[in-house]
Design goal:
Helix content: 55-70%
Number of strands: 0
Structural class: mainly alpha
Radius of gyration: 14 Å
Shape: globular
Oligomer: single chain
Number of helices: 5
C-alpha cells in the first residue's frame, strides 16, 4: 500500500465528483498526476485552476470533496481554494422575502 494512499484516494474522489463537468482531456491529465505520477497535489492544483479558467461552476458537495482532498495534503487554506470557494461554487437560489 502506498504511504499516502488516503490522500490519493481523497484526490481521486474529488476528481471523480467533477468528472461529468470537466473536459475528458482535463480528467485524464489530472488522473495521471494523481494515479500515475504521484503528483496528487499538482493534480489538484491543475484541477482547481482549470475549473476557474474554464468558468466551470461546481456544487457545494463537489467543493467539499475538493476541500477534503486539499486539507489532506496540507493545502486546505490555499489561495486557489479560497478563490474557487468564492467564484466557482454554485449557491442555492435565495428564497423570496416575505
Amino acid at each position: 500500500m502506498h504511504p499516502y494512499q488516503r490522500q490519493i484516494d481523497l484526490c481521486g474522489e474529488a476528481l471523480e465528483a467533477v468528472r461529468s463537468s470537466i473536459p475528458p482531456d482535463l480528467f485524464r491529465d489530472v488522473d495521471d498526476y494523481i494515479n500515475r505520477f504521484d503528483e496528487w497535489g499538482l493534480g489538484m492544483e491543475v484541477l482547481i485552476d482549470q475549473l476557474g479558467e474554464l468558468d466551470i461552476v461546481i456544487s457545494p458537495e463537489q467543493f467539499d470533496l475538493i476541500r477534503a482532498a486539499m486539507d489532506s495534503i496540507g493545502q486546505g487554506e490555499s489561495d486557489r481554494l479560497a478563490h474557487l470557494r468564492t467564484h466557482g461554487v454554485s449557491r442555492p437560489p435565495e428564497s423570496p422575502a416575505s
